Amino acid sequence: MDVKQFLDDLMAQLDGAFAENTLKAYRSDFKHFANWAISNGLDPLPPKASDLAAYIADMSERQKSATIRRRIDTLGSICFFSGFGSPTKTPEVKIALKKMHRKIGRQQKQAHPLTLDLLEQLLKKCDSSLAGRRNELLLRIGYETMRRSSEICSFCFEDLKTLPNGHFALNLKRSKTDQLGDGKLIPISDLLATKINKWKRRIGATEGRILRSIRKDNKTLGDKLNPASINIILVDLQYRARRRDLPHLSGHSFRVGAALDMLNAGVPLEKIMLRGGWRKETTTLRYLQSWVDNVNPAELQIEECTPVWEVTRSKN
Questions:
Q1: CA–CA gap between residue 29 and residue 34 (Å, rounded)
Q2: Ordered DSSP codes for the chain
Q3: Residues of 68-96 as b/e, b for ≥16 C-beta within 10 angstroms?
Q4: Cα–Cα distance between 160 and 205 in angstroms, integer?
Q5: Given pLDDT bands bounded at 50, 70 and 90, which one contains residue 180?
Q6: Is residue 311 packed enough to be buried (19+ CB in 10 Å), middle (13-18) or exposed (0-12)?
Q7: Which strands, in side-by-side order, build the sheet including 160-162?
Q8: Domain 116-314: CATH class, spelled out
Q9: Which of 48, 124, 141, 270 is deepest in the core (most CB within 10 A)?
Q10: Is 0.85 topped by the overall pTM?
Q11: Degrees (nearest 5) of the Cα angle 9, 11, 12?
Q12: What is the rounded distance in angstroms from the CA atom of residue 57 to the CA atom of residue 43?
């Protein structure tokens, strides 16, 4: 069976059922396994439990445990949708994963938090140029919405909504945890809403993406900002702010930093989860435990809280 044809057929079958980025990841992860199998004289189709166990052992020599788990999860999904059974759920594969975890551990390196104090340092490095104003919006939208990089870049001018209380929200039409596109209104500060409208007038837009790419001449705008560019922009601002002492910031830094600020403001864990779009306590705590000693969910159940956008507003 030809691997490329197999993937093309499967992606066509799954098109519309999953996000585009998910399908890209499926294709990339399966190609990685297929290339490994072929280089070792094995047939990648269908994946066999014994081959997957060997694949895990080989990856444990050079890959992080989170990457290995993700690739095996991907292969499990592909096998399921292709009618290949469940080779990733066999004792052989489960034992291989346990051996891998004992060998290299499970700890996943967390993004350095972009908390409010650091956010303010970066905002000071955003000048009045086209790139400067775009970068300011990126910082404010990322911090206030606590969304993933792809979601931050997906916001359009049409997504800015006025709430019944007179304040504003951004409509997140689709997210990693909302593949059906039910949508979610994310409240933002009046300050951010004002800056979005000013940016809209400055670039002469009537609709389309809020965050856009800018060419080297600092005059020509593209249609949208690539999510991969967020890390580059953040590190550049970090260096300009003379914060080379910190690990490189990334798109995930918004989520970690805002979650920590909410925690320190007395926000209950459930509200942090709701704001950040996390479904499980364990996921939220994994973000927080790397930066807060002895986080106990029972200690986070405080009734009154200050939402992250109110924290931001009070500082500006």
A1: 9
A2: --HHHHHHHHHHHHBTTB-HHHHHHHHHHHHHHHHHHHHTT---SS--HHHHHHHHHHHTTTS-HHHHHHHHHHHHHHHHHTT---GGGSHHHHHHHHHHHHHH-S--PPPPP--HHHHHHHHTT--SSHHHHHHHHHHHHHHHH---HHHHHH-BGGGEEE-TTS-EEEEE--BTTBTT---EEEEE-HHHHHHHHHHHHHHT-SSSBSS--B-TTSS-B-S---TTHHHHHHHHHHHHTT-TTSPPP-THHHHHHHHHHHHHTT--HHHHHHHHT---HHHHHHHHHTTSTT--GGGG--S----HHHHHHHT-
A3: bbebbebbbbbbeebebeebbebebbeeb
A4: 14
A5: low
A6: buried
A7: 160-162, 168-172, 184-188
A8: mainly alpha
A9: 141
A10: no
A11: 65
A12: 18
Rounded-to-integer distance, Cα 34 and Cα 1, Å: 12
Amino acid sitting at position 86: S
CB contact set of 245 (below 8 Å; sequence gap of 6+): none
Lowest mean pLDDT among 49-63, 183-197, 214-228: 214-228
Domain extents in the chain: 3-104, 116-314
Q: Which residue has the tokens 């007395």?
A: 266
Token code pair at residue 268: 């209950």
* Rounded Cα distance, 96 and 99, in Å: 5
Over range 46-61, report the average pLDDT: 97
